[in-house]
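pinging the channel bc i need a second pair of eyes. not urgent but kinda urgent?? the chain im working w is below, pasted from the shared doc
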Amino acid sequence: MLNRRYHIHVVCADNDQLLVLDSIAIFFQGRAFLTYDASSKLPKASLYGRQCIDACDYALMVIGDSYGTTQNNGVSQMHLSYLNAKAKLKPLLILIKKHHNGANISRQLQEFTNAVTSKTDKIYYYETENDIDQLLIQAYYKMVASHHIEAEWIRVDEELMKTNKSSVSEALAATLTNNQVIGQETTVVPQQRMDDNVSKPLVLTDTFEIRYKAQAYEGGNLTDVTRSMVLAWQDILITLIKMPATFSNYGLQSGINRLIATRAEIDIKREMPNVHAVARCQISQDDLTHLQRQLIGANWIQLTTYGTRVTHELWKLTFYAKSLLGEKKPLLGASAIPTATS
């Protein structure tokens, strides 16, 4: 009997918070399959961590008492895995241990924790391993509800694997390719989860809706407004083409905001005819994240490099995306597609 479960990769420092990690394992027994960061002392730790994050459905990071063993570049595997999870836009659940005043915490751990907490407010704090169960009941199911992903990992019953029934073999062969063993359970990962090059095509003429915020000026008064706007993928491609050869996450956000700004004043004046100026147009963070995820999945943009901080991640337009521009030149003039809805 096949039992689908999520694959969760646990980002953690080596030889730290062992009781907490045990509590996490017990909580997820029957709910998910877990993989863990390997020690930075191992030469293949980075490759292993990157492959696990590529394959996982969700990531869970535990920041405790240690930054972890550093590699030659001065960065720990926990830090690298965090950056990889952010670059891959993986839904990330973060657990941070509360430290009392005067606790002996390394400078690297303090700086890393500050960097993480400045980037998200979806953080859960614990004091001991006894807090983990109640904390995860709330945090895990909230994350799954916010980022629903169809479970891909499959636990295969040992007795079933021993049979030679052709129907079983055909069913497994049709959907599963790579085997991986975790503890005493044999699991199978679909090839699509392991292959970064699998693309989900985007049609340039297809449209989608985003939400944005802006400030409207009317008679000397400023009003914060939230509106919807309809864009076409060709609008996004044109925006990407106009950007520098490499760009940061902030650069992508700024480019999309500029695209919105070119249309927002017309849209807002339809409902507020006395508005004389519109400024500070910003796409919603959730829509930006979803958009970036789709661009990566469609092989339009790819990560070129990253530093020890998320702000140092650099992206570039892929050759495939550039080729679409050459193929669709007649489409890249003035768009006749509707630009907004109320």
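so The chain has two domains: 3-194, 207-341. and The CA atoms of residues 8 and 93 lie 10 Å apart. — does that match what u expected or am i reading it wrong
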